[in-house]
Amino acid sequence: MSLNMTQKGPDNKKKLVGLIGRPVKHSVSSDVHNAAFNYLNLEYFYIAFEVKEDALRSAVIGLKALEATGFNVTIPYKQKVVKFLDKLVDDARTIKAVNTVVIKKGKMIGYNTDVPGVINALIPYKDMLSGCDALILGAGGGASAAALALAKLGCNRITFVSRTPSKARRLADFFKQRIKISTDSLGLSASNLSNIAKPYGIIINATPVGMWPNSDSSLLRREHIRSGSIVMDMVYNPIETVLLKEARLAGAFCVSGLDMLVFQAAESFRLWTSLEPPIEVMKRAAIEALGRFS
Ligand code: NAP
Questions:
Q1: Which residue in 13, 78, 80, 126 is the catalytic one?
Q2: Domain of 158?
Q3: From ligand 1's centre to the CA of 19, what distance in Å?
Q4: Of the residues 85, 118, 208, 288, which has the fewest C-beta atoms closer than 10 A?
């Protein structure tokens, strides 16, 4: 486990909250949460830890031993962390993916705040989403959260696309059986994507394609995107990815991963502190921190 040294250490009065993932260099969660804690004068401190896969169990147990209040989990551990937790609740239990853990009385409880994160980011388009067909690029934890959010928002049908077709198939079967929503799946290749993407009312990128430092890539170009459709990129670094630039030029409504980032962080904050999150403070902190990368 290695500490992200861009952060100052906590003083020992403060309660610890963490992030585990790999990589975490692109993450701005520590900026977002520490800004909220400071704004409300709370005695908490958030630290990002880069954890190798063979150290995941030790990291989780270590955070409990250190009496952390909880922690976030990011790429690629949202599904892998499940087996180390005592209990999953709410959306995490439905999709077996966790991005927020609360440690209470020695028990580790897994939540998924990505689902409300996606819902809140898409609320301005709620009416357009009811009954619409959705295309999700990716078949990992973010794709599951997006699918559950879209089902809750009333989408009609979800198509999962993955470079590992068996994973897309598994997710499609899972949502068909458990959530009772119509689904299908496709293998990812440039030719099939360019042919199939256009009819969809909403497209969500739930892969890291386009993420800093490989920010010049996109799975879709403007000619594959329909004017008037909704395109959301879960990638938030950069704030406007190449996919979102292309979507904007195609005349689509664009939703940045930044909105989801702030809303999911706000829900995690609420779970750890039982307080109302200062959302505007958190958003400003995220934008300022993302400026470090440009
Ligand atoms: P994950 O569970 O590891 O899943 C990643 C998915 O992307 C997998 O289906 C993977 O395919 C696919 N993928 C990876 N590299 C690819 C490439 N070069 N080309 C095509 N597909 C590729 O990760 P996740 O947690 O779902 O996160 C996905 C992205 O969403 C990340 O960039 C993450 O930072 C972002 N995210 C943002 C927020 C937010 O708050 N804005 C929240 C959650 C996630 P294989 O399975 O074949 O490897």
A1: 78
A2: 116-255
A3: 17
A4: 288
Low-confidence spans in the chain with pLDDT less than 50: 3-7
The answer to whether 35 and 285 have CB atoms below 8 angstroms apart is yes
Pairing of strands 2-3, 44-50: antiparallel
What integer pLDDT is reported at residue 224 of this predicted model?
A: 93
Rounded to the nearest whole angstrom, what is the distance from the C-alpha of residue 98 to the centroid of ligand 1? 14
Contacts of 77 by beta carbon, 8 Å cutoff, 6+ apart = 20, 21, 22, 51, 53, 56
Is the Cβ atom of 21 under 6 angstroms away from ligand 1?
no
Residue labelled with tokens 């406007």: 240
How many domains are contained in the chain?
2
pLDDT digits (tens, 9 = 90+) for 157-175: 999 999 999 999 999 999 9
- For ligand 1, say whether the CB of 163 is within 6 Å of any of its atoms: yes
Number of residues assigned to the chain: 294
pLDDT given at position 12: 62
For residue 6, the model assigns a pLDDT of: 45
- 15 labelled catalytic: no
Residues 248 and 156 placed together within one structural domain of the fold: yes
Question: Do both 243 and 274 map to the same domain?
Answer: no
Q: Is the CB of 78 under 6 A from ligand 1?
A: yes
Could you tell me the CATH number of the domain that includes residue 278? Answer: 3.40.50.10860
Q: What is the pLDDT of residue 11?
A: 59
Question: Tokens at residue 222, please?
Answer: 């403007």
